[in-house]
Structure formats: structure tokens, C-alpha cells
Amino acid sequence: MFELLGISPQALTSQLLIGLINGSFYALLSLGLAVIFGLLNVINFTHGALYMLGAMFTWIGLTQLGYWIGMPDLEVSYLFALVLVPLIVGVMSIVIEKTMLKRLYHLDHLYGLLLTFGLALVIEGLFRHWFGALGNSYPVPDMFRGGMRVAELFIPWYRLWVVGVALLVCFATWYFIERTKLGSLLRAGTENPRLLQALGVNVPLIITLTYGAGCALAAFAGVLAAPIYQVTATMGSELIIVVFAVVVIGGMGSIAGSIITGLSLGVIEGLTKVFYPQASSVSIFVIMIIVLLLKPAGLFGKVR
């Protein structure tokens, strides 16, 4: 059937895999945005810059750190970076929340959006000044080199690792927020923070940790992306608009909606590149327009 359309099964399967990989990043990034907006009501425009920081810090740790400190043979383990970099970015985000965002919670959402948008421009500008606009990259970690062959298609192990670990983290986040006692406290803190505080719960601490965790998810996606894509100062700004579209389609603040929509739109985008390549760059936005016309709150969202 596909041969009649001039499309080989190998090309179709390859684009499906690429779409699933892109969808994994969409899901991770939109999940972090959904967590922050759903629990804090903050539209976090720094998310793209934090994604870039995750990739950039990983590239620095794995390729540049040894030369900077005069120990060229020093190498940071990829798995170590996968844990350490999100923690570093999460702590940086907590500092931002405590010193800046905290002052805007009683104001309109627009002020938080403008602040985070400005911070994103500052972070991107600094790293563009320090490292230039050209892309940097490093090879796939040794433990994930190679792949498996299915029929005539070669599937790299690292791509499978990215999809698998992204799905695992997405499911773990959803389960934590929707099915655990601490997750119920998080959700209760957004509905009635004064009542929860009267019961002895430290609501400001919960808000701060939630913001840090949501931002750490963006950095985690950046660490996963570094061996696949070129690491540049602008890689976050190039992706954040698409991720916001994913969040809007899934429903602002919907955890499950972000995961399902992110993965689905990645696959749809991949299929569009096969059947109608000219529309691949706008397919997600066309879907967003249709969804907003039919269901303004998003596929899984609720009217606030």
C-alpha cells in the first residue's frame, strides 16, 4: 500500500521512531510546564532555557571540565550527569523562585510570564556570548553505542534508552502527583493553601520544591537530548513554542494530557514528514487551532 504512494516501509518506520523520540522530549518538557502551571499557576517561560542549561552543563561536564581545571583526562560519567545536572538546575530554579517569582504570586499571571520570559532571554544571551551560536556535540556514551537491526532498519540503543527513560519518568511523575499522599497535598495546596497551612503543612516549601522539580524535568530532558541534537544556546527557544502548543492542546495543568499529547503529536509530526513534508513544521499548530476552536480548555483540561 505505501509503495503505491512512493513511501518505503523503512522510511515510514524510521520517521515513526524519530517522531516517538521527539514526542518523548515534548512529553517531558510539557510535563514540567504542566506541573508548574497546574500546581503554582505560573506560566514558566524559562523552561526552554533550563532545557538548554541541562544540555549545556552536560556537554561542559563531559567534554570541557577537565581542560578548564587543568586535568584533561578527567571525565564525568554520563549517568552521573543525568542525576547531577537536573539537581543543579533544580536548585538554581529554587533560588529564582525564592528571590523573584515569590513576589509575583499575588499578581496577574501575565507578570510571571513576563518575568520568566525576560529571564529566558538573559540566560540564552549569556550562553550565546560565552559559547557562541554554533552547535556543540559529544558522542553517544559508550554503554549505549550500537543498536539492533529490525528487518532493514537499524535502531540505535541510545534512541531506545531515551524513549524508555522518558516514559518511565513521565509515568513516575504522574503516579506521584495523582496517586500518593504527598501528591494529594500538592493538589490541595493549590485549591486551598490557607486551610492546608492551618493543618500544619508548610505550603511555601511545597510550592518551592514543586517549582524546582518541574524545572529539573526540563534539565533532565536536556541531558537526554545532548547526544542527539546539537547543543546550542538557542536550542531551548527553538523548542519552547512547540512545547507550549503541546501543553495547550493537552490542557493547561493536565499531567496526563501533557504526556499523552506530547507523545501523540511527536508521532503525528513524524508521519506528516512522510506523507506531506511541507506541513510538518506547522502540523502541531494546526492541531492546536482546531482543538482550541472545539474545546478551548484543551483535550484533557478543565475550565478554570
Can you describe this structure?
By secondary structure, the chain is an all-alpha fold. The protein has one domain: Orthogonal Bundle (ABC transporter involved in vitamin B12 uptake, BtuC), CATH 1.10.3470. 69% of the residues lie in helices and 3% in strands. It is built from eleven helices and two strands. A two-stranded antiparallel ribbon has the order 1-2. A hairpin with a 2-residue loop joins strand 1 and strand 2. Helix 2 (47-68) runs antiparallel to helix 9. It is globular, with a radius of gyration of 20 Å. The N and C termini lie far apart (46 Å). The mean pLDDT is 85.
Radius of gyration based on Cα positions:
20 Å
**Major sheet characteristics:** 2 strands, antiparallel
Please count the beta strands (DSSP E, at least 2 residues each): 2
> What portion of residues is helical?
55-70%
Poorly predicted sequence stretches spanning 5 or more consecutive residues: none
- Give the SSE order as H and E letters: HHHHEEHHHHHHH
Shape: globular
Which strands sit side by side, in order, in the main sheet? 1-2
According to CATH, what is the topology? Answer: ABC transporter involved in vitamin B12 uptake, BtuC
Give the N-terminus to C-terminus distance in angstroms: 46 Å
Look at the structure and give the mean pLDDT: 85
Helix/strand class: mainly alpha
Enumerate how many helices there are, as a single number. Answer: 11
> What is the annotated CATH architecture?
Orthogonal Bundle
What is the total domain count? Answer: 1
CATH first level: Mainly Alpha
- How much strand? under 5%
